[in-house]
Amino acid sequence: MKTPSIYDTLTRSLQPLSPADGETFRFYCCGPTVYGPAHVGNFRTFIIQDVLRRVIEGAGIATKHVRNITDVDDKTIRESQTEGKSLKEFTTYWLDRFHTDCQALNLLTPHVEPSAVAHIPSQIRMIEQLIAKGHAYAAEDGSVYYRVSSFDSYGKLSNLQGREITTCAHGHGHTDDEYDRESASDFALWKAHKPEDGPNAWPSPWGDGRPGWHMECSAMSIEYLGETFDLHGGGVDLIFPHHENEIAQSEAATGKPFARIWFHSAHLMVEGQKMSKSLGNLYTLDDIRERGYDAMALRYVMVSGNYRQPLNFTWDSLKAGQSALRRLRQFDHDLMRLAGSATGDADNAWGPFEAVYDALAENLNTPDALGRLFKAVHDLERRLHTNDLAPEEASRVRAQLHRTMDLFGFTLESEPVEAPEEVRQLAQQRWDAKTARDFARADELRAKVSELGWTIRDAKDGFELVRN
RNA sequence: GGCGCGGUAGCCAAGUGGUAAGGCACGGGUCUGCAAAACCUGUAUUCACCGGUUCGAAUCCGGUCCGCGCCUCCA
Q: Does the CB of A209 fall within 7 Å of any strand B atom?
């Protein structure tokens, strides 16, 4: 089986996804800030990371997947106070909501999901190491900053030279605490307590305060994966400054290389525009369900484009995804019927879907993989309909199909979408008219249901409702 | 200005030197009270534009036009 590979932002080349320790592929993904519902853009990143993990595991490699929860930062602190809730109460609510969404999207649960606020002591220890080695300094107000000039290779990930960073740092509202910095490009490791933080402060050797944003990922990834691990991922926007800063902090503290491979996924656009609150296009999973689509359709959309290119999310693309998925479900259903009680060899091969795995293994080429999947499905459908497929083979192919679906994270059971009561009543009336052979009345009712956005599908002994 | 990603059928999208995958949508057919679903089948002489290299280019080289992202806390 082909060894999977991935494009590495640091070396700008394809790198094999093989574990450095020869056993477990250890990787870290920057997780959500739990201050509101995650939107489709966040999910693009998490779904792509999920497929990456599934491909590595599909290659027979064990993984250790760590994804943090950012539950202490400017936004969580501000919003919790606005709502008059404790930070804990506030972030717990949104974390639960995030987990519910992840489940609906069939995202594998990370092996460790560390909370930033629960790891403040290890962050403090790391800051102390950096100060001791001359890479950080405490300012008069009790904040601690990283001394960027002390780390020679700063900028190696984002391709920025130190000079450009400082000269480009203009037009962004400088806050008061920046006057305490030796250099404008130095960033905060520890932020001294401010009145607007309310009760959210933790003791440290430099006084009460809270960790800077970048610190949690360095401290927690090293704690759970070791000083050097296999891969670190996130959205492209995190390349600079977040991941650049993580490298600077971690490598300065340990003296060892941090992550071996850097994996970044491109952003999601919505209807051709950047997502933003002001445009009102920060869609959530609930928005998608309200429009009658299930979570799997969103997953399909996310893998229909290459992860390194911006993907344009549209309602049309969601509809297309839902239809494509329906076809796969139908194929699975047909195989099941043909297989009956027959059992084929449940070997661990990909069978007719080997090419699908190969496409995914080569830099996670999901669109190519989908093309190969449907090509194989089409061939098998033809054989199935010309009685050229024995039940034993159908059974075996079905098992192989399911293994292949697992690579994408697709579940073939559709999430039922309940039609409104009014629609269901009309549909029932049409069924009654039909069985009474009053076809004029039946057609009239079908048209009404259609106007309300639903299509009636008749089966032998009943009907079902699907979105138009 | 710097760094990065792109411009392939109505829409989405693969293909990085050998003569355009695949999905959705659409047309035709089988089936069906109708319809839907399902299956079969058809649909780009052409890959933003202009030159060049080559027996051969969507793919390589030079130039032009256009879109998008990042450049200090946004996945």
A: no
Res. A32 pLDDT band, cuts 50 70 90: very high
Residues A149-198 have pLDDT tens digits of 999 999 999 887 644 444 333 333 344 445 678 888 899 999 999 999 99
**φ/ψ of residue A258, rounded to 5:** -85, -115
Same CATH fold assignment for domains A5-265 and A270-408? no
> Within its chain, how far is the Cα of A408 from the centroid?
12
Q: What's the complex ipTM?
A: 0.94
**Residue of higher predicted confidence among A178 and A311:** A311
CATH topology of domain A5-265: Rossmann fold (3.40.50)
Q: How far is the CA of A325 from the C1' of B35 (A)?
A: 22
| Domain A270-408: which CATH number of 1.25.40.10, 2.60.320.10, 2.60.40.2470, 1.10.730.10 | 1.10.730.10
Question: Any atom of strand B under 7 A from CB of A5?
Answer: no
Q: For residues A455 and A112, give the distance between their C-alpha atoms in angstroms, rounded to a whole number.
A: 44
A66-89 pLDDT, tens digit each: 999 999 999 999 999 999 999 999
The answer to whether the C-beta of A316 is closer than 7 A to strand B is yes
Interatomic distance A325 CA / B21 C1' (Å):
19
| Burial of A43 per CB tally in 10 Å (0-12, 13-18, 19+) | buried
Q: Give residue limits of the domains in chain A.
A: 5-265, 270-408, 421-467
Give the position of tokens 């999601």.
Answer: A268
Alpha carbon distance A159, A239 (integer Å)? 10
| Predicted pLDDT of residue A414 | 66
Residues 74-93 of A with CB under 7 A from strand B: 74-75
